[in-house]
Amino acid sequence: VRRRRCVVTGAGSGIGAAVARSFREDGEEVLGVDLAGADIDADLAGQSGREAAVAEIATRYDAVDVVVACAGSARPVPETVSVNFFGVVRLLEGLLPRLWRAERPRVVVITSVAAVHRALRSVVEACLTGDEHAAVTEARRAVDTGKAAGIYTSSKQALARWVRRSAPTSQWAGNGVTLNAVGPGVVLTPMIEDQWRDPVGRKALTEQVPMPLTGEPVDVGQIVRAVRFLAAPDNEAITGQCLYVDAGADATLRTDSCW
Ligand SMILES: NC(=O)c1ccc[n+]([C@@H]2O[C@H](COP(=O)([O-])OP(=O)(O)OC[C@H]3O[C@@H](n4cnc5c(N)ncnc54)[C@H](O)[C@@H]3O)[C@@H](O)[C@H]2O)c1
Asked: Could you write out the DSSP letters of every residue in 5-43?
């Protein structure tokens, strides 16, 4: 069997590093993308970095079998919208023609249980209209009005909704490309370790992300497991889903308001 060619963003740390390692251990080919020190160094916050990454991937892989988009930032700044939403969506759009050439193309994006929290509607809507300038402007307005904490939530909610909207369309489903999201609860990676060590930060996190199944952070291996399940070549029917790997947080927060 031919080795699958996988692109993993955010491969330099945390969840992305664990996903890249897992694919490599199973003999798949992986191109890691990150700010520095990866196979391909690119800043996905800007369109030129995204285009450079797509061009570099295209020189190495004629067809792309798997993309797992893990790169993300939790900083409460406007740029977070550019990384978490447009850095994923524009990169995937750029890679679509390569995905179409694969036999069983699979895409998984990492959202967050934060996607189910209350978001800033103006930021989410600007993202979903595809207007990066407007989205960043709205995020800047959020900073100016003391609502910066909503930027991360909004970027992830927009991404989850984009997955739902896009997956069934002709470009994606019509070309046999599955598109799903994995939404982690609290995972102890460099993104969150400092907050978890601080008692005040930990208390806030456990209130925002209640995880009744374990009461503990989710092991990164559990996130990898879900990614691998959705990215598997024999996943022939699951697309457009957001799978929360969160020890019960989403079900606690949204109860039966969605099903
Ligand atoms: N750790 C958690 O508790 C948690 C929970 C829910 C969702 N997530 C999401 O999981 C994903 C992975 O996060 P993590 O926990 O592994 O964090 P992490 O900080 O360990 O890894 C994030 C990676 O993304 C890269 N990155 C950031 N900005 C970038 C940019 N502009 N261009 C290219 N690469 C960039 C970083 O360099 C880093 O290697 C993120 O999307 C994050 O939002 C994490």
From this structure: EEEEETTTSHHHHHHHHHHHHTT-EEEEEESSSSSEE--
Q: How far apart are the first and last CA of the chain?
A: 38
Q: Is 195 a pocket residue for ligand 1 (Cβ < 6 Å)?
A: no
| Active-site annotation holder among 61, 85, 152, 244 | 152
Encoded tokens for 160: 């989850």
- pLDDT, one tens digit per residue, over 101-148 is 999 999 999 999 999 999 999 999 999 999 999 999 999 999 999 999
- Distance (angstroms) between ligand 1 centre and the Cα of 86 equals 14
Q: What is the mean pLDDT of residues 178-199?
A: 97
- pTM (two decimals): 0.98
The upper half-sphere exposure of residue 246, i.e. CA atoms within 13 Å in the direction of its Cβ, equals 26
